[in-house]
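Protocol step 4 of 6.
Sequence for CRISPR-associated protein Cas6 C-terminal domain-containing protein (Methylomonas koyamae) entered exactly as in the expression construct, tag removed. Do not edit the line below.
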Amino acid sequence: MRIKHEQKNVSADHFNFGDLFSTLLRRISMISYFHTDTPLQTDFAGLTTRAREVEIADQKLKWFDWTRYSSRQKTEMNLGGLIGSITLNMAGLEEFWPYLWLGQWTHVGKATSMGMGAYSINSTSLPTQP
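Step 5 output, structure tokens:
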């Protein structure tokens, strides 16, 4: 996942939920605008402001660089992004849940067309079925 904040890639040390969520909300909004009859209507400013206050309970992220060959540009392209996991305590954060859930399919950040920005949600607090 490669997210930018103020024109710079967000590193593992500076990763925060606010940057993740605002980037995700922008992506979902753009997809909705260009590919549906109904643009996303939500409180963008309010959600983004509240997302900046969300604390990450645990994170195990690192930067991973890789290259791919571009047939169109006839050169190798250096790519990179964050890999790993984060843990959020979702109590009281229900308003973010639909966007986070949808983001599993839309991906988030730069180079999503090349498969970057994928993530999956795993619940650690739901009761298991007998």
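Step 6, annotate. The chain has a mean pLDDT of 90.
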